[in-house]
Amino acid sequence: MIKKLFFRTLDTIRSLFFNGLLIVLPITITFTLFHSFFKLIKNWLEPLNVCLPCYFQNVPQSEFLVVLTIILVIGVFVKYFLLKPLVHAIEDQLVFKIPLVRSIYSGIQQLINAITSKDQSNFNSVVLLEFPNIGSYTLGFKTSNLPKEISPDQTETYYSIFVPTTPNPTSGFLVILPASKFRMVDLTKQEAMALIISSGIIKPERFE
Hints:
By secondary structure, the chain is an alpha+beta fold. The chain has helices at 2-45, 48-51, 54-57, 62-80, 84-93, 99-116, 189-197, and strands spanning 125-130, 137-145, 158-164, 172-178, 182-184.
């Protein structure tokens, strides 16, 4: 009887512990991720403290306020003072004339435009493909048609597929495939990203 009561009490304690863990764990992981990201950005902005006046350095997180203000001012000038032609002129006359810088800058610019674009055919086509080997499947994003001049087979249309890594989707793989080797998936870009970043834990609510 005592043994049965002991195991019942132990099961109750275990159940209560896991119930509490299920509540605390998501909050803890979310806080840890945001804290790590915050520290990373703060380290990047640390050199700004040298340039700030002494009285401004006493303000908490002053480097963030400075950067946010600068970005806001640039946004205002670009939108209301029509500085986009000037920005494009600087890109054409200066940035795009430096060989290595041109390639990196242009690539990053195209990636940002693709991610933020509202065009559903641009980076928003979520696909399912066999990767990294036959029988293993992963999610990817169809980014563009591959030019025929660099296609493995010029008689068939090939596509560039970006396969992001988990849990960090900013890195990944470029896979070149014909249309017969992948299929479209009924997922939005946001749903696919949530699935990838969470390692498959966070699933679209509409499928529950």
